[in-house]
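Entry
Fold in C-alpha cell form

___
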Amino acid sequence: MQNLRTFLSGVEKLGELKIVRQADWNLEIGAITEISGSDPNPPALLFDEIKDYPAGYRIFTNMFQTQSRTALALGLSTELRGVPLVQAVREMLHVSSPLPPVIRKDAPVQENLFLEKEVNVLRFPAPWLHRQDGGRYLGTADAVITADPDAGWVNLATARVQILGENRVSLYISPGKQTRLIAQKYWEQGKSCPVAVVCGIDPVLFAVSGLGLPWGVSEYDFAGQIQKAPVEVIKGVTTGLPIPASAEIVLEGEIPPPDVEAEIEGPFGEWTGYYASGTRPAPVIRVKAVYHRNDPILTVMPDFKCYPLSSYVHLIFSAAQVWNEIEQCGVTDITGVWLAEWGLRFFIVIALKQRYGGHARQAAHITLGAREGGYLGRFVVLVDDDIDPSNMADVLWAVSSRCDPQTSIEIVTGCWSSPLDPRLPPFKRAAGDFVNSRAIIDACRPFSWRNEFPKVHSIDPEFRRQMREKWANVFK
C-alpha cells in the first residue's frame, strides 16, 4: 500500500525527482512548474523553503507528467507506455473485487489538528499559479469527500478550492458531477452538506477521485481494489466522514446552501488552456477543522495551455474507461484508445479492427452516449488497427490520408458539456445551457473496399525491433 511519501521515494529512485528551494508561492512556483513541464520527460518537482513559510512546508507538482510515474503510482511496470499502459489499467477496471476502507483510531494525519478558532488555511503555502487567477488555490490535486444522505455511500471527487480567508474556501463543481448532486440533496432540505477536502493526497486516491464511477460506487472501495489493500481512514472529528489516514493536509467542514452563503470563485487557468468558466457565485466551505502531518506536502496540479500535459493519470484512466464502455455494449475488436495529450477529452482516438460495415461509427456513437466518453468532448477520431492511437503523428497521417471530408465526418449535437468549455457561446453560458456538438472523424479505410485501399509501405514491427536491437547505439 503506497502513500504520497513512499511514492516520492519511488520517484526519486527512478531519477525523476528534483528539489527546488526558496521559490515564491506567488507566481514563481506555477511558472517553474510550467517551464519545467514543457521539457521532454520532465521531472516531478518538490518545492521546499518556500517564501514566507517554514522549511518542511512543501509543494509537490508534476506528479504524473510522465507515463513511468503514472505506472509507478498504480503499482505497474514503469516500462509500460501508450496502449499497453491503458490495457493494464483496463484490467484493473475489469476486476470486480472492491475493498471497503478500514477505520483506524490513530493516524499520521492527526499529528496536527486545529479546531474552530484555531483554523487557518493560510498556514499552508497555497500558490497563486497563473497571473490572471482570481486568487490562491489550496485544492487543485485534491479529493473532495461527501456522503450521500440517503444511501450513505461515500464519494471522492476532484474539484478546485480557492482560499477566501482563514476559515473559508470556495468550491467549484461542474454541473452534473456527483459531488454537486450529493450536496443538492442536503440543500433541498435546507441543510449544510458535510465535507472534507484532502489537499495532500496519496496517488491512488487522487487517480480514482477523477473517475466517473457509477452512482453509489465509492472511490474508497475502488482504490482498495487497485492497491490490493483497503484504504485506512479515520473518522472526521466534526463530520464523521472517513478521512485518509496517511493524507498530508485535510480541511473538514460544511457547505451551506448557496442561497445562504456563496462567494465569487475564479477565474482559474483551466486544463483547456483558457479562463473559460470565468467567475460566478460558488458554494463556500466553512472550515471547522484542519489536519496535517508534520512537514506537510501540498499536492498541486497547475493546468497548462495545451502542452505540457498536467497529468497522465487521468488520461490513462479515461482512455481505459472509454474502451470498457465500448466493449460493455458488445462492440468487439477495439485495439486501443487514447486521449491526445494536447487535447485530452476534447480529442479521443479509437483504434479497431473493422469486422463489418458501420463497426467504427458504432464505437464512436457509444462513446458519445456513455458517461466517460460523453462528457466535455469535441472530436472522436476512428483509426484502423495498424495505427497506434497514442502516436499523434500516426493518427494525423491516417486522418490526412484516409478521411474524406464529405463522407467521413459526422456532426452530433446536444452533447453533455460544461462551463469549462471555451467554445460555449455567451448566450448559452448565461442560460446554463451546457451542451455542445461533436465531430466523429472516420479515418479508417472504407470497409466496403478496404482490401483495395493502397498498401502502406513501412518497416514491419518485427524487423523494426531487430534493427533497434542491432543498432542500439544509434537509437540512444
